[in-house]
Amino acid sequence: MQDFAIRPTSCGKYDLVVVGGGQAGCAAALAGARGGLKVLLIEAAGALGGSAVNCLVNPFMPDVTKVPDGNGGVKNLHLSQGMYLEFAKALDEEGIYSRPNPSATFHEESLKVILDRKMAEAGVKVLFHATLCGVKTEGRFVKAVAVATVGGVLSFEADTVIDATGDATLAAFAGVPFQLGRASDSLCQPMTLCFRICNIDVDAAWRAHGEINALYKKLQAEGKIKNPRENVLVFPTKLPGVMHFNTTRVIKHNPTDAFSVSEAEAIAREQVVEMFNFLKTNFAAFKDAALASTAPSIGVRESRMIEARHVLTQEELIAGTHFDDGIAAGNYDIDIHSPDGSGTSHYYFPAGVYYTIPYRCLLPKNLDNLLVAGRSIGATHEAQASVRIMPICICLGEAAGTAAVLAHETGVAPADVDASVLRERLRANGAFVG
Ligand SMILES: Cc1cc2nc3c(=O)[nH]c(=O)nc-3n(C[C@H](O)[C@H](O)[C@H](O)COP(=O)(O)OP(=O)(O)OC[C@H]3O[C@@H](n4cnc5c(N)ncnc54)[C@H](O)[C@@H]3O)c2cc1C
Question: How many CA atoms lie within 13 A of 322 on its CB side?
Fold first, then answer.
């Protein structure tokens, strides 16, 4: 007779352990290692890049606003700089599928390799195929994390821990209170399984876009299309004859319930087949097309948002609030895909108006050495709908990793890091903090 053998094998101590190798986690790990920390980056999948890789999310959403240039004109200001621009530049220059004309579209195969190389150069120890399965806390401190691997359960101690899982899974395991989805009913923005179709006459497909949407809406109204999304959302790719579809919509499912997510994956796959058949049957541009791939995992726009020392609100965003402890900035529209049906609502920021994100949004209320970076920081459903985009998540990761460095240098807990010093260090490293 044998019971569950879950006693972890202890694997030593790091200055910083980052759980989640999405773009936020990668930026956090890089900032930590470049600041001299011994860093472990733990990732459940087999590659870095997070949603861009596991869920085929593309392109980078815009991060630019217009500001006065001092000569009576206006100039573009990037609100996400630092490591976001570093990643984007690497995708332009070093990628397997480089971006000859820099654009927001990138190829995830390049991103994977670029991030591997950056981690190796900075000395970050990367552990793939390792899923967080436990957290040890003492008082207001996380002491160790446990991960399930093919070789058994391993544990790692750390001075500072960063939760970059996107779902605030580590924080939840550690007892940090959170809000799931919107306040009224905990429904989250829909999940979407992205997919790619190849062998398309791409120019003809763009020309037919209006016609495609008109027929889609007609068939949806007649009950012949089940997908509740209001239109066909499609983007270019770097590959000839290939288009990227971000257009499935699974509503009223819970991204933090494994059974609910499993059901969502199957529903979304049926929507992919429905969309592919619709395009191939009705439009000449798709007559020779084939379904190239669906993403390895369904994409989650929103799940848990931690109860942080500050919870960012829509009102603060719209007012263009610049916080004293702002560590990242944004003006992406408040883009809410309906959690319970058709439609997507938008609030667009006027030119020149942007908000900043306080350092306190990364700090759980009840723990002092845990930072949360990426889409699960302290924000309401509405505010999260703007801050969740990849450029901003990278900046949040960079800020969290830099805070870990300052905590180490000054011998204080991350929660006690002086935000003005953090802002100065981020600026010195090329970030924009408002
Ligand atoms: C369908 C969809 C379309 C989107 N479209 C765009 C877009 O066009 N442009 C844009 O800029 N943004 C877009 N977004 C938003 C953006 O992709 C995400 O909000 C952003 O990538 C989140 O980054 P992150 O680093 O916080 O999390 P993620 O990128 O999700 O990374 C989290 C990482 O943690 C790992 N992980 C999770 N749990 C564990 C665990 N228990 N143990 C170990 N590892 C774990 C995951 O495998 C993953 O690699 C979209 C999102 C979705 C879902």
Answer: 8
